Amino acid sequence: MSDLLDDRAEDAFRAAFAEHADRFEPAPLGPVTGRPRVRRWAGVVAAASVLAVLGGTALAVVLSRDDASEPGRETDRTTANEPAPDGWRYESYRDVQVEVPEAWDYDAAPGSDWCAAVPGGEGRFPTEPYVGVPRGGVRMIHCGDGAPDLLGGQVPERLWTTHVSFADAGVDGVDDGTETAAGWTRIARTVGLAQVRVLTDSEHLDEAREIVESARVVEADHNGCAVTSPIQANRWVGPKEPFDVAEIDDIDTIGVCQYGIGVGTSQPWLLASRKLTGAAADDVLAAIKNAPIGGGPDRPETCLHDVEGSGLVLRLARGAEVHEMYVYYISCVNNGFDDGANRRELTVDSCIPLFGERVAYSIGDGTPGRRCHAQMATTAPKP
């Protein structure tokens, strides 16, 4: 199961990443308190549509921005600070948080290129209920067969699996409500700036309803990530409260908050979040502190210097004390860990562990990609 790139396509992309690592490369790219329990996609990162040709294979990476989205029905607007109910966990997107079954893993749904002849064939697609993560790229081939299309992309029913996904409200014509086809049900509900969707078989219908009904608007999610961050700005910015990470000796957790950047700060653009604890958090902190000062790796001559894509805010927490560090990893410029005092270089040990679950490395220049993307770090030539 992939945390980053759609594992089901990684074998096909492997040679392309290695051969074209110095170019932009797609890779893929996580309710609330005081309410009674009732039994009852994946937004992508940036603000453009990109066509990348890798190793002779054309890949369409669709990146959406929806500044005009109208808010959906709003319920509780709060910070989620209570544990999820037993057997459930939280996931968040934009300004919305939902409960999902704890047993559901993370995966990417089949896309419109589901029929591509790649290693694993149709066996590469998930067969157990899951929480959707963004796909890294879609081959520009036509696989449609005219079958019912609740999943989208004209993916046939034999490849459907129960899962929850998130989309920006109102972007692709999926109406709120319930649709059925071929014994399957898709339930969609818009709350805040997100539409929560669950495609389900009859066995998981009750869980699907509960997921959708649990959606709540929040100001900060279960990992402490505010739904709007200054990192979203249309320019490269640093933390508003500078500190020196070299002086941080001990932490309890690292909250990893992923935002769309270059989209402005007028709306929530939290894409996903996760939390590192224990040895995992300690190891990342040590790796960041050991990284060279100066930022990078950068190659400013190889790309446009636009602020578009995704970035991370790391919440280094010890008790009630929290320091926020910004992480840029998508461009040929301004990459690195920024604590407001210094910018430190991305390294394999400090960057790769940040990505996982729904926090995905989506698209970026090959040079930082070799520090932050597990597959690229092992298959692409070194800079």
What does this protein look like?
It is built from 6 helices and 21 strands. The chain has 383 residues and is of the alpha+beta class. The protein folds into 2 domains: 214 residues, no CATH class; 150 residues, no CATH class. Strands 7-8-10-13-12-11 form a 6-stranded mixed beta sheet, with helices on one face. A 6-stranded antiparallel beta sheet has the order 16-15-17-18-19-20, with helices on one face. The protein is globular and about 60 Å long. The N terminus is likely disordered.
Produce a short descriptive summary.
With 383 residues, the protein is of the alpha+beta class. It is 14% helix and 29% strand. It contains 6 helices and 21 strands.
- Our estimate of the beta-strand percent is 25-35%
State the helical fraction.
Answer: 10-25%
Secondary structure class reads alpha+beta
Question: Biggest sheet, strands in spatial order?
Answer: 7-8-10-13-12-11
What is the count of β-strands? 21
The backbone outline, from C-alpha atoms, is: globular
Biggest pleated-sheet summary: 6 strands, mixed
Enumerate the spans where pLDDT stays under 50 for 5 or more consecutive residues: 1-71, 73-78
User: How many helices in DSSP terms?
Assistant: 6
| Mean residue pLDDT | 82
Protein traits:
single chain, 383 residues, alpha+beta, 2 domains, six-stranded mixed β-sheet, six-stranded antiparallel β-sheet, 6 helices, 21 strands, 14% helix, globular
Ordered list of secondary-structure elements with their pairings:
Blueprint: H1 7-19, E1 24-26, E2 49-54, E3 57-62, E4 78-79, E5 88-93, E6 96-101, E7 105-107, E8 130-132, E9 138-139, E10 163-168, E11 177-181, E12 184-191, E13 194-200, H2 205-213, E14 216-220, E15 253-261, E16 270-277, H3 278-290, E17 309-318, E18 321-328, E19 336-338, E20 343-344, H4 348-351, E21 363-365, H5 366-372, H6 374-379
Parallel strand pairs: 4-14, 7-8, 8-10
Antiparallel strand pairs: 1-21, 2-3, 3-9, 5-6, 6-14, 10-13, 11-12, 12-13, 15-16, 15-17, 17-18, 18-19, 19-20
